[in-house]
Structures are given as C-alpha cells and as structure tokens.
Amino acid sequence: MPLPGAVPPSGVFAEYQGKAWLAAAGLTVPEGALATSADDAAAIATRIGYPVVIKAQASELPHKSDVGGVIVGLADEAALRAGWDRLQQNIATHRPDLTLDGVLVEAMGPRGLELVVGARRDAGWGPVVLVGLGGVWIEALKDVRLIPADLAEADVVQELGRLKAASLLRGIRGAAAVDVAAIARAVTLIGGQMRANPAITEIDVNPLVAYPDRVLALDALVVCAPQA
After folding, report:
1. At the topology level of CATH, where does 113-224 sit?
2. Element (H, E) at 129
3. What local confidence, expressed as pLDDT, does residue 137 receive?
4. Spatial CA neighbour of 88 closest among 106, 72, 108, 68
C-alpha cells in the first residue's frame, strides 16, 4: 500500500496520518478523528462516545506526552473542553514555535495486554521487525523478539511463544488468553508494509493492546527518510 501522502520535511508522519494509513492497510485503530476546534472535538466525542483521549498532532511532535500533548480519560463534554484548553496551553508553553495540524480525538481503549511492534530498515539485513511486551514493560523487561519482516504468521506465533512472558499471552491468574493470531497478523502486516515501501525507515506501534478477540493499535509512528 502506498505511503500516506506527501512526506513531511522531517520524515515523521503525525500520528493521525500514520494511523489512517495503517488502518487502511488492515490494522485496527481506535475510532476517532482530527479536530481543529473545541466544538469539532465535542462533536467527534459525541459521535464515538465517551470517555475519550485527546492528542496534539504535528509531524514535528512525535513525543507528545513529553510536552503535555496527551490528555486521557475525558468523561464528558465539560471535561473535554477543559482538557482542550489545558492541552493548548501546554503546547503554547513548551512548544510556542509549533503550529498543530489539529487534535486527535479518540475513544479510550479498554485495558488489555500491552505489546510493542516495531520495524526498522537495517543496512545489512534489510527490514526487520521487533515484537514483545510494550508500554512501560519494554523499558523494564526488554522482553522482545527480533524477526525478519517476511516471516509467515504461523512462524510469528512460534516467536511469540518464545517470549519470556509468553504465559501472559495464554492467560494467568484468571486473566483470559489474548488473540495470538491477531497479534501475528498485525506483525506480518507491519513487516509487509516495510517491504512494500522502501522509503519507510521505521514503524512503531506502542502499545498494540491485545484482547481475547482482537488487537488495537493505540499509538503509531511512521517515519521515512527526511526530504532534502
């Protein structure tokens, strides 16, 4: 599938652009849309249902949380409008030079098992994919597998079984098992996009949240080589 429009000068696509492209390729993402005003945001939230999360969007802002650009758990319109004002003030304080494309308003995903799926283009090996525990666990445990981007789904399932925390996929202490086949499909989809689009240098989906019947990409980053 072709890239999601013109490549920004930085090479980094804003989250809403990367997610729209990955969703069109078959990855499941939360329901939501880009808002350019508080009224837009309220209309989107009414359509998709509360609670919602709002995220500042610009290609120059890949790490939104660092500057207060992500506000979660907005339970109603009053909270949303207050959160909108707080987000705008945070950006004005930390990045006064930045003009946002808008604010992504999304339905809050339910809790599940947080994974990471990342892909890079290695000079020697070509595209490779990393999969493992995501969220805070990737820093704490570094429990990941590095695999070729053309690995078949059945082989990805075997690699997932080699994670040190593979028992979490099967369900422990009363937790339900997650949909390992859906995880494998997401991994092969991301590997396939890397192989089909040589301009892409990096894809990061963190977290990819796994549930008993599906997966959901809560955040996504797509990076190409910077334009000259």
Report:
1. D-amino Acid Aminotransferase; Chain A, domain 1 (3.30.470)
2. strand 126-133
3. 58
4. 68
